[in-house]
Each structure stands twice: as C-alpha cells, then as structure tokens.
Write a structure and sequence with these properties.
Blueprint: H1 4-33, H2 37-63, H3 83-110, H4 114-146, H5 150-160
C-alpha cells in the first residue's frame, strides 16, 4: 500500500500534468489566432501528451489502491507577446515540471518506495526529452529573429506542423 504523503504528492502531480495539457491547448489556441497552424498543431500534440502523462499518474494510483483526488484546474494564460515568448514559457514550464518530478523521486526514495521510484523513472527520462525539444525550438526561433527571417519562422512553422502525423 502506498503511503499517504506519496499518494498526495502523486495526486498533486497528476493535477499538474492536466494543467500542462490545458496550458498547451491554450498555446495552440494562441497560435491559431496568429495564423501559425503548424505551431498550433505542435502544441495540440503536446497537450495530448500531457493529458496522457496525467493518466499515467491516475493509472498508477489506481493500481496502488490509492484514492484519486482531482483538483480544479487553474485557467492558463491565453496571450503571449509573440511565438518566441510562448516557447520560452514552454521551456520554463517544462523546467518546473522537471523539478517537481525530481522532488517526487526524492520523496519516493526517502520513503523507500521502490515501486513509485521505478514508476517515476519514466518521467525523469521524459523530462530530459521535453526540455531538449523546447530548448531546440527556442534556439531556432532566436536564430530566426537574429536573421530577421520571416522565412525561417515559416519553415519552423511547417516543421512543427508535422508533429504527430504519420509519414
């Protein structure tokens, strides 16, 4: 049986993952409003992934016989100054998620909860990928800005629009 403090921390993270899904869906809407449909598509896929992450926590808690505790999801922002601002927000958000996952891992280890530590290992690896993806996009957008390249922004929009589509 999972300890109460671990259960509560996992429920909190589950809710944060659902917020992340909401945040990325809001960003998708922002990108639609500025006619960057590829950026919107990328964020829509990201929102689906974050929802799936929340469901992983849900499933694990159920498997552990723990009570699920859903909290209200705070409304995310819906406006950004420009596409770079939105992706810098994405990067900062993913860095916060990484810190939370690390905190959960520390808690699991301090409680000698090997099952939860094993479960969280997937998220530790996933956050490396999440931060790397956001960092790469921010870098490319800054490069496009330095080059004053609307063409580069268009190409990046096209590239991001391919996410989640089969070849």
């Amino acid at each position: 049986m999972i300890k109460e403090n671990v259960r509560d921390a996992l429920n909190a993270q589950m809710n944060r993952e659902f917020f992340s899904s909401y945040l990325y869906l809001a960003m998708a809407g922002y990108f639609e409003s500025v006619n960057l449909k590829g950026f919107s598509r990328w964020m829509q896929v990201q929102a689906q992934e974050e929802h799936a992450h929340g469901m992983k926590f849900y499933g694990y808690l159920v498997d552990q016989g723990a009570r699920i505790s859903l909290a209200a999801i705070e409304a995310p922002p819906s406006e950004w100054t420009n596409p770079l601002d939105a992706f810098e927000h994405t990067l900062g958000h993913e860095q916060k998620v990484t810190a939370r996952i690390h905190d959960l891992m520390e808690l699991a280890m301090s409680e000698m909860d090997h099952a939860t530590a094993g479960f969280l290992q997937w998220f530790v690896k996933e956050q490396v990928e999440e931060e790397a993806n956001a960092t790469e996009i921010v870098f490319k957008m800054k490069l496009a800005s330095v080059e004053k390249g609307a063409v580069l922004l268009y190409l990046l929009d096209h590239e991001l629009g391919k996410r989640g589509k089969s070849a």
